[in-house]
């Protein structure tokens, strides 16, 4: 069963049950109240009659009084000791065949009488002959039957009439709830079939859950599309980047094949070029793997780490590998919660860039601020043109192709640095002035109790 039909069916059924229950409640309350009213009226007139009878001394006079008090559509009977029928009068036919006998232990007795209900009561009284008799009064409830019938008709009519707006509103409700879901299903099916990322129209001001669902779906689609485009771009950039060294290797290999035997100096040149390109390719592949690994949040393990030790280690590595002086300034000890392995990798990437793109010393400044610890890696090299700064974290982005060919860069270093920074929950800032140098700042969050 479709959701729309379910909502429609269930809400209509619920409302119908509610209406029927409330109508039944009203009907039975009315029925009970009416019986009570009839009973009190009958009792009232029976009591009046007993008062009048008590004053009588003559049986004939008593009979006249009884006739005056017989209820319309009813009967009166005087029963003596041992159930002896003393007198009975009636204003309706049929009582001579079967006279309703009130039960002693009940307030009043209801018995079926000629298709109606007859309400009977019995009260004791003194008969003019001084005998204690039972006065039985019966009223046939003809009006009540008509009233109840009318009430039933009115209630059925009202229920049927009320069902019209109920059915309309439950259909509208079903449509309101299912329309956005149908739109979603439609968009998802279309996206699956066409391989695109289709969004759905959502009311901008919509605040309810259905509007939120639509907005979240659209956001999800945007994110999926962005990720898809990123992956697509990465694969195309990576294959493009790998194509250059492979082409170089291939052309040198062919050259060796053709003329390598005759010209030994060519062989050396070709082998050097092949080795260089292979090294470059290996580096690039390692960096690509790094990029994939650093993307996984699970690979980050946070524990209390001394930042100063990390910075000193990274600086020492650069100095011993490339013979470049790195000066570290700042507190001798600075403990904070971070992933030491990833943070060191980040420092090495930034220090390596500072080394590659400058000739002079490199400074690292560790500064303790209120909520943050700033680690600044400062070099005095060529700097980066302002227009390139926004794209530095893009994969394979390089400033000035020639310059980087010389340094052997891949354009992946800062992209990896950015991924690590996200994984560590830090922020990277790059400030640079062409001809003067570059400062890259890592903003680490300091825990209140760390230091
Ligand atoms: P690469 O492997 O080419 O160094 P990166 O992603 O690390 O790739 O850097 C991207 C670009 O940013 C490089 O092309 C380089 O020109 C520039 N760059 C990065 N760091 C510095 C720096 N400290 N000084 C000058 N230029 C830099």
UniProtKB/TrEMBL annotation:
PROSITE patterns cross-referenced by the UniProt entry: HAMP, HIS_KIN
Top-rank taxon: Bacteria
Enzyme class (EC, first level): transferase
Pfam families tied to this protein: HAMP (PF00672), HATPase_c (PF02518), HisKA (PF00512)
Subcellular location: Cell membrane
Every HAMP domain range: 175-229
Annotated GO MF terms: kinase activity
Membrane topology: Multi-pass membrane protein
Domain Histidine kinase: 237-448
Record keywords: ATP-binding, Cell membrane, Kinase, Membrane, Nucleotide-binding, Phosphoprotein, Transferase, Transmembrane, Transmembrane helix, Two-component regulatory system
Family matches, as InterPro entries: HAMP_dom, HATPase_C_sf, HATPase_dom, His_kinase_dom, HisK_dim/P_dom, HisK_dim/P_sf, HssS/ArlS-like, Sig_transdc_His_kin-like_C
Entry's EC annotation: 2.7.13.3
Name recorded for this polypeptide: histidine kinase
Organism of origin: Sporosarcina aquimarina
């Amino acid at each position: 069963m479709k959701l729309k039909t379910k909502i429609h069916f269930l809400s209509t059924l619920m409302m119908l049950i509610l209406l029927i229950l409330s109508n039944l409640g009203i009907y039975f309350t009315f029925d009970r109240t009416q019986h009570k009213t009839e009973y009190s009226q009958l009792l009232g007139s029976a009591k009046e009659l007993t008062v009048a009878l008590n004053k009588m001394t003559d049986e004939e006079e008593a009979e006249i009084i009884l006739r005056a008090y017989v209820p319309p559509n009813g009967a009166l009977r005087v029963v003596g000791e041992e159930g002896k029928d003393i007198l009975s009068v009636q204003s309706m036919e049929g009582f001579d065949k079967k006279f309703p006998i009130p039960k002693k232990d009940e307030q009043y007795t209801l018995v079926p009488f000629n298709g109606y209900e007859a309400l009977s009561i019995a009260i004791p009284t003194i008969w003019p002959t001084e005998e204690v008799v039972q006065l039985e009064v019966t009223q046939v409830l003809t009006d009540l039957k008509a009233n109840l019938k009318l009430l039933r008709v009115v209630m059925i009519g009202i229920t049927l009439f009320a069902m019209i707006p109920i059915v309309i509103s439950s259909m509208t409700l079903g449509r309101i709830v299912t329309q956005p879901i149908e739109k979603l299903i439609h968009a998802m099916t279309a996206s699956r079939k066409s391989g695109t990322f289709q969004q759905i129209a959502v009311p901008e001001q919509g605040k309810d859950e259905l509007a939120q669902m639509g907005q979240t779906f659209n956001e999800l689609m945007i994110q999926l599309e962005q990720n898809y485009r990123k992956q697509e771009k990465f694969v195309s950039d990576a294959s493009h980047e790998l194509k250059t060294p492979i082409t170089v290797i291939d052309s040198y290999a062919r050259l060796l094949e053709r003329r390598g035997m005759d010209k030994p100096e060519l062989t050396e040149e070709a082998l050097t070029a092949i080795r260089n390109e292979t090294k470059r390719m290996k580096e690039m592949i390692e960096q690509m793997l790094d990029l994939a690994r650093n993307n996984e949040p699970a690979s980050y393990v946070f524990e209390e780490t001394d930042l100063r030790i990390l910075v000193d280690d990274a600086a020492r590595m650069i100095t011993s590998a490339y013979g470049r002086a790195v000066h570290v300034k700042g507190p001798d000890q600075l403990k904070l919660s971070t992933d030491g392995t990833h943070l060191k990798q980040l420092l090495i990437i930034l220090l390596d860039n500072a080394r590659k793109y400058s000739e002079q010393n490199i400074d690292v400044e560790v500064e303790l601020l209120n909520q943050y610890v700033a680690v600044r890696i400062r070099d005095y090299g060529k700097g980066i043109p302002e227009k390139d700064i926004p794209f530095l974290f893009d994969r394979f982005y390089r400033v000035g192709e020639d310059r980087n060919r010389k340094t052997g860069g891949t354009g992946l270093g800062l992209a990896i640095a950015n991924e690590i920074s996200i994984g560590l929950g830090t922020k990277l800032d790059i400030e640079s002035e062409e001809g003067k140098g570059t400062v890259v700042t890592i903003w680490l969050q300091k825990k209140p109790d760390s230091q």
